[in-house]
Specification:
The complex is a heterodimer of chains A (about 280) and B (about 325). By secondary structure, chain A is an all-alpha fold. Chain A has a single domain (about 65-275), classed as MetI-like fold. Chain A has helices at about 5-30, 55-60, 65-95, 100-115, 115-130, 135-160, 165-175, 180-205, 210-215, 225-230, 240-270. The radius of gyration of chain A is 23 Å and the shape is globular. Chain B has helices spanning about 1-10, 15-55, 70-80, 80-110, 120-130, 135-145, 150-160, 170-200, 205-210, 215-245, 250-255, 265-275, 280-310; strands at about 55-60, 65-70. Chain B has a two-stranded antiparallel ribbon. Chain B has about 325 residues and is mostly helical. In chain B, α4 (about 80-110) crosses α8 (about 170-200), α10 (about 215-245) runs antiparallel to α13 (about 280-310) and α12 (about 265-275) runs antiparallel to α13 (about 280-310). Classes of the chains: A mainly alpha (about 280), B mainly alpha (about 325). At the A-B interface, α1, α3, α4, α5 and α6 of A face α2, α4, α5, α6 and α7 of B.
């Protein structure tokens, strides 16, 4: 088969899936830009009579997008920072040092990685009630950091192993302490890995749903994902133009970053087993 | 290690100092992993302990623990008529999504690993669902499948594939299959990525050899590619099993387990038991059961992963 005919065949095979994948994006855009009078009509059409970009401005106010955005950024940044702060030393230990119980520690991490918050959500809720953290963003910061810890450690240790140990050995001979080696030699070399890991933890926090649903109570604390869900869940009249505009604005930046970085993700998710 | 040995055998003056250092060196890894252990035990370990404790006691709907009740909560859980229903639906949901994903992802990965016009764009599109959170996907699909004004009905109608509008998510017969289909679409990117990684790691020489020996395309696939990427298939199956089994947002956002509990799987039912019906003791028993199922799957995964490590090492 020539390259040209092969291309036609392959695209033809992939096209049903591609249509299904692009369909919701088309729906999102098409709904986000139409005037409200053209939302609940039958039969609906793809291209509205009037393209109304003002929708995005209206949505911003109606949805209280700004407040939710600030909450989400604070929670995600806080959780990412906490998670990395704790994961870096652990990953350094597992990738650079041999110690008793290392295997056990790795398996412990694996189990926590496999646990989804939903299975423990009742226990987590009770814990947060005891600590008086319900309806506080700190509760989410703690949970997100804890549930991403295993992923971050696995991801980092996989990268750490690729950094040559000779530099640190040289620094040891020069009398550097373990902390100095980590801080001044090792971490600067590991910056790209830290960046990638941080991005994925951040995106997880940005998208998280179950814990936000369970632990947040008052509107001014809602994260973006939960805020947009609350426009849909349990409402009698849903303003779909606002919802789709908000979804679009919340998704696109993350989608772009994610698309650029997703190839790094597998090494973390497959936990070093797939080489 | 060599340095440490040399240090111990040197002059007695620095002995204590060196000994202190050696102890410090031995303790260092434990100090480094300590914060991660503490955070995990606090946020993940304590809830597991608390749930176990609850599952063995009578619990009021306000969360007070009363008498020790042995395994009564577990037998109450089994006696709940919805338990078996949700369990079966969870199995259907999990196996349909995991199986469907694997069956579709393999050929897609094979296509994407070959050279053709626009391959780069095709890859980006196929990966797109991964980049959007499940909650957002659920919300958009819920609107797209709206009975009156949804674009899915409109499109099918325009194409002449449909005569009457269908309220996809409000009908018991269609809601669950539709959710399974969407579950598959959003699970494809991860699986394809792992398969692509697997395919790119295959040695090209043996394919040359097979070609020279006259092996056809099907034979090369059946006797070379498939056995070689078997470990990757195993990994995808187990990891997807765990993810899909735990998957909450998609179903919760689209139908909340309704109409009439017909799309409830264990996780959505668990959420309702705990936060709507106030049956905290049964909910904790269910949490423990699910925890044990996940633990068992994780062990399968560890066994597979270790075998891979040995084989590739």
């Amino acid at each position: 088969m020539s390259r040209a005919s092969r291309s036609v065949v392959y695209w033809a095979i992939l096209s049903p899936l591609i249509i299904v994948i692009l369909f919701p994006f088309a729906v999102m855009i098409s709904t986000a830009i139409r005037p409200r009078a053209e939302i609940l009509v039958f039969p609906p059409v793809w291209i509205p009579n009037e393209i109304r970009l003002q929708n995005f401005v209206d949505m911003w106010r109606a949805v209280e997008f700004g407040q939710a955005l600030v909450n989400t950024v604070l929670v995600s940044a806080g959780a990412t920072a906490l998670c990395l702060l704790i994961a870096i030393p652990a990953a350094y230990a597992t990738s650079r040092m041999a110690f008793r119980g290392q295997r056990l520690f790795r398996q412990f991490l694996l189990v926590t990685q496999m646990l989804s918050p939903i299975v423990l959500v009742l226990g987590i809720f009770r814990l947060m009630v005891k600590m008086g953290l319900v309806d506080q963003l700190y509760a989410l910061v703690l949970c997100y950091a804890a549930f991403n810890l295993a992923f971050a450690v696995w991801m980092l240790q996989a990268y750490f192993r690729t950094i040559p140990i000779e530099l640190e050995e040289a620094a040891t001979l020069d009398g550097a302490s373990a902390f100095q080696r980590l801080w001044m030699i090792f971490l600067p070399l590991a910056t790209p890995a830290l960046g990638v890991t941080a991005t994925f933890v951040f995106i997880y926090c940005w998208n998280e749903f179950v814990l936000a649903l369970t632990l947040l109570r008052s509107n001014q604390n809602f994260t973006l994902t939960f805020q947009i869900f609350s426009l849909v869940g349990g409402r009698y009249a849903i303003e779909w133009d606002n919802v789709m505009a908000a979804t679009l604005v919340a998704c696109v930046p993350v989608a772009i970053v994610f698309a650029k970085l997703q190839r790094y993700l597998v090494s973390g998710l497959a936990l070093g087993a797939v080489k | 290690m060599v340095l440490q040995g040399a240090a111990l055998s040197s002059s007695p003056v620095g002995f204590l100092e060196k000994r202190r250092r050696a102890i410090g060196k031995a303790a260092a890894p434990y100090i480094l992993i300590l914060p991660s252990l503490l955070l995990s035990l606090w946020i993940i370990g304590y809830p597991i302990f608390d749930l176990t404790d609850m599952s063995l006691h009578t619990v009021t709907r306000f969360g007070q623990l009363k008498d020790f009740s042995g395994l009564a909560n577990f037998s109450n859980l089994l006696a709940e008529p919805l338990f078996l229903e949700c369990l079966i639906r969870t199995l259907v949901w999990t196996f349909a999504v995991v199986g469907g994903t694997a069956l579709l992802s393999l050929p897609i990965a094979l296509i994407l690993s070959e050279d053709f016009v626009g391959r780069h764009i095709a890859r980006i599109i196929i990966m797109l669902p991964w980049a959007v959170s499940l909650t957002m996907s659920g919300i958009v699909w819920r609107w797209a499948m709206n009975g009156q004004s949804g674009m899915l009905n409109a499109t099918l109608y325009d194409l002449g594939l449909m005569k009457e509008p269908i309220a996809w998510l409000a009908t018991a017969g269609t809601a669950f299959p539709v959710e399974i289909a969407i579950g598959i679409v959003v699970s494809i990117p991860f699986s394809v990525t792992v398969f692509l990684g697997g395919l790119s790691s295959l040695p090209t020489e043996i394919y040359e050899a097979a070609r020279i020996d006259g092996a056809g395309g099907w034979q090369r696939w059946r006797f070379l590619t498939l056995p070689l990427i078997r470990p990757f298939i195993n990994i995808v199956l187990v990891l997807n099993f765990i993810y899909v089994f735990n998957s909450f947002p998609l179903i919760w956002v689209m139908t909340q387990g309704d109409p009439a509990n017909s799309t409830d799987i264990l996780v959505t039912w668990l959420y309702k038991l705990a936060f709507r019906y106030g049956k905290l003791d049964v909910a904790s028993a269910l949490s423990i059961v699910m925890f044990l199922i996940l633990l068992a799957s994780t062990m399968v995964y560890v066994a597979l992963a270790m075998r891979n490590e040995r084989e590739t090492a």
